[in-house]
Amino acid sequence: MWRFVGLRTLQAIPVILTVITVTFFLVRAAPGGPFSSEKAVSDQVRAALEAQYRLDLPAYQQYFSYMADLFQGDFGPSFNFPSRSVNELIFQGFPVTLELGLYAMLIAVLIGIVAGVFASLKPNTLQDYMPMSLAMIGICMPSFLLGPVLVLVFGIWLDWLPVSGWGNSAGDKLLPSITLGAMYAAYIARLSRSGMLEVLSQDYLRTARAKGLPEYIVILKHALRGGLLPVVAYLGPAFAGLLSGSFVVETVFQIPGLGRFYVQAAFNRDYTMILGTTVFLATLIVVFNLLSDILSAWLNPRLRYQFRK
Amino acid sequence: MSLLQVTNLSVYFHTRNGTLKAVDGVSFEVEPGKTFAIIGESGSGKTVACYSMLGLVPMPPGKIESGSVLFEDRDLLTLSEAELRKIRGKGISIIFQDPMTSLNPFLKIGDQLIEPLRLHFAISKKEAWQKGIEILEEVGIKNAAQRMHSWPFEFSGGMRQRVVIAMALVTEPKIIIADEPTTALDVTVQAQILKLLKELQVKRNIGVIFISHDLSVVADIADKMAVMQEGRFVEQGTRDAIFNNPQHDYTRKLLAAVPNSEKSAQENKAEQNLVEVEDLKIHFPSNKGEAPIKAVDDVSLHIKPNEILGLVGESGSGKSTLGRAIIRLLKLTAGKVSFDGQDISRLSAGEMKPLRRQMQIIFQDPYASLNPRMTVYNTLAEPLLLHKIVTKKELDNGVCSLMDSVGLARESILRYPHEFSGGQRQRIAIGRAIATKPAFIIADEPVSSLDVTIQAQILDLLLELVERFDLTMLFISHDLGVVRYLADRILVMKDGKLVESGSVHQVFSSPQEAYTQALLNAIPGKSLFTTESKGF
Question: Which pLDDT tens digit goes with each residue over B239-256?
Answer without folding.
Answer: 888 888 888 888 888 888
